[in-house]
């Protein structure tokens, strides 16, 4: 994993690629060597994560550095890393809470928008149904008007030809 991370970082230097390589290198060094040697590699990982402000890696790196310093009896350095871990963890939890709040807010807005869309769709369907009903009524009224006009026309025609109406 370290070799792959190094190759990626060398092909595409900077940014998160450097952080991932430095962190993988530091984690491997700490796992292999119980002395103070890996602390300089771990410091490079912390510096790289600090440059791009990659909080999860900062948390892991400060926690590992605090553990190593404590194991070596460097309690002041362990405490300093523990303080940095606390700051990074607080930021991480704050970010997480903020993201959860935003997700809940977006979910609420999305539900509201869907409800509005559904309401508008229901109104559209109801409007279409009313329009169809109005069209049927309009067609029926037109048909009845034609019938009345036909009846008026027949009555007028019959009145002209009816001998009793001619006497009056």
Can you walk through the features of this model?
With 168 residues, this protein is mostly helical. It contains six helices and no strands. The chain has helices at residues 2-11, 15-32, 38-52, 55-71, 75-161, 163-167. The mean pLDDT is 92.
In short:
The chain has 168 residues and is an all-alpha fold.
How does the SSE layout of this entry go?
Elements lengths: L1 H10 L3 H18 L5 H15 L2 H17 L3 H87 L1 H5 L1
Helix pairs in contact: 1-2, 2-3, 2-4, 3-4, 4-5
Give structural attributes:
168 residues, mainly alpha
Structural classification:
mainly alpha
Largest sheet: none
Q: What is the percent of helical residues?
A: over 70%
Envelope shape: rod-shaped
The percentage of residues in β strands lies in under 5%
- Rg, rounded, reads 42 Å
Q: Total strand count, please?
A: 0
Count of helical regions? 6
Residue windows where pLDDT falls under 50 for at least 5 positions: none
SSE string: HHHHHH
User: Between the first and last Cα atoms, what is the distance in angstroms?
Assistant: 117 Å
- What is the residue-mean pLDDT, rounded to a whole number? 92
């Amino acid at each position: 994993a370290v070799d792959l991370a190094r190759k990626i970082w060398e092909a595409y230097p900077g940014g998160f690629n450097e952080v991932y390589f430095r962190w993988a290198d530091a984690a491997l060094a700490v796992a292999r060597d119980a002395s103070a040697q890996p602390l300089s590699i771990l410091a490079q990982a912390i510096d790289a994560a600090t440059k791009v402000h990659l909080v999860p890696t900062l948390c892991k790196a400060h926690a590992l550095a605090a553990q190593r310093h404590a194991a070596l009896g460097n309690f002041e350095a362990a405490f300093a890393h523990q303080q940095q871990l606390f700051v990074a963890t607080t930021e991480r939890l704050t970010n997480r809470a903020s993201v959860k709040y935003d997700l809940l807010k977006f979910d609420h807005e999305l539900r509201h928008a869907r409800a509005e869309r559904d309401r508008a769709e229901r109104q559209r369907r109801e409007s279409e149904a009313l329009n169809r009903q109005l069209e049927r009524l309009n067609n029926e009224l037109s048909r009845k008007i034609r019938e009345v006009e036909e009846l008026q026309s027949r009555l007028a025609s019959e009145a002209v030809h009816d001998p009793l109406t001619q006497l009056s």
